[in-house]
From TrEMBL:
Protein's name according to its UniProt entry: Tetrahydromethanopterin S-methyltransferase
Transmembrane segments: 47-70
Upper lineage: unclassified sequences, metagenomes, ecological metagenomes
Keywords, sorted A to Z: Membrane, Transmembrane, Transmembrane helix
Amino acid sequence: MKKKQILEKESDIIFDGNEPLIKWKSELDFAIEDIDKLNKEIGFSRGFMYGFISNLFLNILIIIICMLLWGI
């Protein structure tokens, strides 16, 4: 019900020649927009955490290799 009201509000009227053509925003467009919003909100924090954890493991690995090479 809510989506139909939004669809009616966000209709674009395009004038093509003599009569106006009404282009409706499809449900798929709304789904794609919702997914994009979620990816932007979640993706940043998730990507940051994955990057941070992988960098942490990489740094620890480099430190262990350096300690083995220097014989500490």
